Amino acid sequence: MRILYGVVGEGMGHATRSRVVIEHLLHAGHAVHVVGSRGAHGFLARTFADREGFEITEIAGLHFVHEDGAIERLASFWSNLEQAPASLARNLAAYVTVGERFRPDLVVSDFESWAYLWGAAHGVPVVSIDNIQVLHRCRHPPEIRGSDTFGFLLARYAAKWKMAGAYHYLVTSFFFPPVRKPRTTLVPPILRPEILAARPEPGRHVVVYQHADVLEHLLPALSALSDQEFRVYGAGRKGREGSVVLRPFSNEGFVEDLRTARAVIAGGGFSLMSEAVHLHVPTLSVPLQKQAEQELNARWLAHLGYGGWVAALTPGAIATFLESVDAHREALQRYVPHDNETTFGCLDEILRRAALGEPPPVSLDAPSLGDVVSTRIDTTLAEAGD
Q1: Residue 306 scores a pLDDT above 70
Q2: Helix, strand, or coil (residue 106)
Q3: Does pTM top 0.90 for this prediction?
């Protein structure tokens, strides 16, 4: 098949996950044309440079402005509006080029709108692969949804309409709530080969991964905990400041530090959180404020006992979390690590059904970790669509 693959450019988790799926598709003999923005485009272009069956086109995507661990919504709006004319011109040119030259049989989107809209406009089946659809397509208890009901519902409907009417939804997750929508299948996190090859050997250090602006305020708090060693990524410099070791980013070095870590302190991003869960490393999550998907990840992490979450990092919060690391590690023993074969089996079935012209499947025959059959959603709801 000729597959158009859209990858959102905000946050590298989408790109690293898509790299794994694209590799599987190319190995299976499919032709893949990727559209991506910002860092995702550069990363995937380098990864698959000169690879037979692979093409990539850069598009313009939305981006967020962050400040002090929160999304600045107004600043993000004006920044995107300022770039809108150039972005529109770039995307219109790509729209014509991809349609005329590549002519996709199917679209895969990792929460990326351009490819989704192309598929919807041309009647081409769209397959959604991402973790964010868990907001809309699964049920969450009140304590997980949080007290900001309006914010949660707004995020839920934003997720719904961004990818409405897809042929099927593969939702990656390390927590497995009941599925409430048809054409939805839960699968384990998609993990890069380096993580799958890693073997946990818990040591004494704590890995810290944060934005540079957050770290400027955090480093004094970490230095105050002199009985710990913190290996910090994201500061943009290297060196040692007391108990804090500032590390330059290295894929191999980061994976080595992660697999041997006593614990992790990070944001609410799904990719690193799921890697830590896979390696049974307790995590203290600090989700971006007003980012419902990250807060959902963090609450599920704490609810399952795999770690904790706080709205802001303080020396007291860090010390409290580190005192409970052993209990979190014990809870993590209940989590069964998975490779990517479950996801690939589900994806291959979806591609086969779409190639045969079958209607969108309510559920899949391939093994999964949750769908409308295993969670017993009734036939009426299953036929109701979105």
Answers
A1: yes
A2: strand
A3: no
